[in-house]
């Protein structure tokens, strides 16, 4: 899926702005810091996804009984 398709409805979304930011002016240190922050955010998202899947599975199991 293309990012333009994904975010077409909300062009002011911070994630859209982040993905379109020009990286050329950033130093190596700034790029490394940016990568670390994004990796941390990915880890946070993965934990939230696990939690959401577990909650859903628990709810499904409860209503199957």
Describe how the helices and strands are arranged:
Layout: H1 3-6, H2 14-20, H3 28-64
Explain what this protein looks like in three dimensions:
There is one protein chain. The protein is mainly α and 65 residues long. It has 3 helices and no strands. The radius of gyration is 18 Å and the shape is elongated. The model has no long low-confidence stretch (mean pLDDT 85).
In short:
74% of the residues lie in helices and 0% in strands. It is mostly helical.
What structural keywords apply?
0% strand; 65 residues; 3 helices; mainly alpha
Main beta sheet: none
Q: Percent of residues in beta strands?
A: under 5%
Number of helices: 3
**Broad shape:** elongated
The total of beta strands comes to: 0
Cα-atom radius of gyration: 18 Å
Q: Which stretches are poorly predicted, pLDDT < 50 over at least 5 residues?
A: none
